[in-house]
Design brief:
- It is built from 17 helices and 27 strands.
- By secondary structure, the protein is of the alpha/beta class.
- It has four domains: 95 residues, GIY-YIG endonuclease (3-Layer(aba) Sandwich); 183 residues, Rossmann fold (3-Layer(aba) Sandwich); 184 residues, Rossmann fold; 90 residues, Alpha-Beta Plaits (2-Layer Sandwich), CATH 3.30.70.
- α13 runs parallel beside α14.
- The longest helix has 21 residues.
- The two termini are 49 Å apart.
Length: 652
Amino acid sequence: MFADVYIGYRVEGSFTYRIPAGTDAAVGKRVKVNFAGRDTIGFVHRVHDDEPEGFEVKDLLGVIDPEPIFDRRLLELARYTADTYLSTAGEALAMALPSGLRPSKRFKPPCEKGEPIDIALNGEQRTVYEEIIALGERGVRSHLIFGVTGSGKTEIYMEAARHLLSRDRSVIYLVPEISMSSMLFERIYRVFGDDLIIYHSQLTPNQRLSSWIRFYRGEARVAVGTRSAVFLQCPRLGMIVIDEEHDGSYKEQSSPRYNARRIALHRSREEGALVLMGSATPGIETLYACEKGVLRLHTLTKRYGDAELPKIEMVKLGSTRPSAIISPLLKLHTKRAIDAGMQAIYLLNRRGFSPIMICDRCGWTEKCPRCTIGMNYHRDRIMRCHYCGFQKHAPVRCGACGSEELTKLGAGTQRMEEIIAAAFKGSRVFRLDQDSSRKKDTVPELIRRMNRGEVDILLGTQLVAKGFDFHRIVLVGVLLADIGMNLPDFRASERIFALLVQAAGRSGRGGTGGRVIIQTLNDENPLFTYIASQDYRGFYESELRVRREMGYPPFSRLARLLVRGKDEERVQSSISRLGQALAEYIRTHDLPVTILGPSSAPLGKIGGNYRHHIILKSAGLDALHGAILASREAVSGRDVHLEIDIDPVDLL
């Protein structure tokens, strides 16, 4: 007997191995094989007795799983993922499946079960819930809940999950960050108890394998996890929840560079499951899909428990000097909050590390005349567009008001914790950023200390805007809203809008009135008008007009081809050959594809690797796929690497 096995490398097709006597290999099991001179793990997708001809067949080295841990559904899903994102089925299976070799018996839930809680929906929530269930029974399976921050979307998800569990269905609940999964798990555990598993990268490989197997067997029917949990297998899938669906964390950054939202929608079509997305700031493409009838839209206009939305105020900063970064108004209300035994959040947007030139007087920044994308400042005093490659000398005067007071912005923000400690002596500051959140106990410790009132000011990056529900927070201060505004990405405004509205939504959840103070160098930016009034619709329509005019999604599909390597000349010559091959194929086949670049990437060097990219735009994927598949061999050699990203969400 023989087994056809996928390998988790960038190699097309599968490979045949002989099954030694007494070895129990079967479809759905992982096996040990020798491939290209190295021992690795393979995934069995076919067992047969057709001996291959023309080469010597190697034996399997062993079988890892005593019983199958996946079936034909995951094989089909892996092939769909590989076809869509131009990877291989083996890479997709290696990413989807846990890498553990033995299920862990030592994992315990990260919280105590506590007292069971009942889910009580208000009238608005009940209406949305009943609409979703009724439409689902009529075959309308893809839904978006567009609800203001604190409107109780989680309660609808849990009520829908409980309904589906009563029909012997399973539920996958996706969250964008591990920090959110920990907090949410505790809440949901009190509803579903041991019917619940958690699945994310901070578990050990064997713990992830244990969770995978329990869910696959139906021993647990609710899974909470980050993006890779979208591949979890179960006897009968009933629903995939995508909480905070606008978040870029649902996009994988290594091959295959899948988007969990698109994978969830594919599973909905194939397995008849509901997809329930939710956000207070849905993605532009998501809301447009609702308008086109791809998703069904439901709205929640009020906060749960009759809490009021916070008051948002804009403050114009006169300078970005450290001594002036906390305005008098923010200082006053922070002191009042601390004196009242309440809490404040300070948001520090760290996406602003690409330097820009900004006018201290009016907030003007330089934009590319070809792409309407922000231009970055480089050490040689050149402003460069990282989409099309356009460049010009850095301005000496503001293009709007003529002022010579231009500041290079985007660095020096690491001192904020010291500045806050000096401004509010004796205050208890907790810092939450990407580095600290990787430590296993950081988020549980934060949750405990915030709930006990042992933190006065929570200082953090984008993480503090994601899903936290602390009832003592009455103030959110955004230290410098301009950071990130001018990043060379057509989604920059959308990201800033979502970040600031989501951050604002952390304030005033406990019934006490909340306040948000957003500090900026340019309070006349129209974006801040939409944010101050929490007018998502107005922002959406304004942004959609720009996207339509420039041909950006949702009016096109994008692909990003990035070449990286240690030798800059080799990278430049490789990206040049790739650009020529693409242009020739597109011209000779008369394809409706626009090429932007080649250009250096905004982050031109990471980890010693130089990075150059090309961006392709087209109305559909077929033309993009055809051009890329025909041209990608133009990049070759071990010293340069080609990364293909279909529907990229981050162009840095």
